[in-house]
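User: Is it possible to get a 3D structure for a protein together with its bound compound? The compound here is UFG. I've pasted both below.
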Amino acid sequence: MKILVTGGAGYIGGAFVRAALAAGHEPVVLDNLSTGHEDAVPTGVELVRADLRERAVLDPLLARCGAVVHFAALSIVPDSIADPVTYYRENLGGFLVLLDGVREHGPARLVFSSSAAVYGDGGGRPFREEDPTRPVNPYGGTKLAMEQTLAHVAPALGLRAFSLRYFNAAGALPDHGERHDPETHLVPLALEAALGRRTLTLFGEDYDTPDGTCIRDYVHVADLAEAHLAALAALERGEGGVLNLGTGRGHSVREVLAAVERVTGRSLPVARGPRREGDPARLVAAVDRAEAVLGWRAARPDLDAIVASAWEWARRLHGG
Ligand code: UFG
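Assistant: Yes, that's possible. Here is the predicted structure of the complex:
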């Protein structure tokens, strides 16, 4: 199937493009390259370098694709706190334009990249899809607004859709990994520290968690990519809705840093900092709904293996 992949030059989008190609699909990438990279798009895949709000570009692409996978968004929590208006304009505004195009041209299947950031601060247990959504940062707010928009729009348009709530994407493929500028994510920053390129600042040790640092559910980007293929297949069966994509296991920041030290064999320069605004203490996925609906579960849940794949990529990127 021909699949329009918005944000396909980015980290998770690029991993999906590779999985889609391997599964025999024909991905077409629409990306404005504001955070993506042209060379993240595999050779032979069509890359349309444009903003998705350019209807003259978007509409013909929609008309010739059988599904849309919508990754394109701004996704950095601290940036969203600094500039929420831009986050809502880009994320929600862009999505509304996309849905307008879908209304006129189809296609009738859509997979939307949502986020664990929609949950906010919860209790000590994994989040289930039906749990209350109370985002504690504007980024999560934009994703929740997009989910809610989709929930209203999809039935009206006869659109079958999934909102996939990613937990913390991590790890790399041999030829594709995380490349943000500036980088804000824990695993690549810790690997840069292992390479001697920086000191890692640990944001807060006074959370209500066993070691006082934040807990996240790190899920391999290749697993996320495969979940999207399963979601597209499930749409064909008439399924849809909201699903968590995680491993169901949480790791604290300290545990991640220990994994980085084990995998790299290097000790990390770590500085202690205050809490970072907008960070929930604990985000871990309940994974049974994704398993039941998609027949998918993370095949690469081991933290050391996730870090090892990211380490290979970091050395390739930075040398060392
Ligand atoms: N952290 C540090 N030091 C750093 C960077 C991060 O201590 O230099 C900590 C953070 O405080 C947080 C944890 O590491 O506790 C993970 O932080 P990341 O920045 O790697 O990821 P976030 O959890 O903030 O956000 C990511 C994505 C979001 C997504 C979210 C879902 O950026 O898009 O995961 O859980 F919504």
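The domain at 2-170+219-245 is CATH 3.40.50.720 (Rossmann fold). The chain is about 40% helix and 20% strand.
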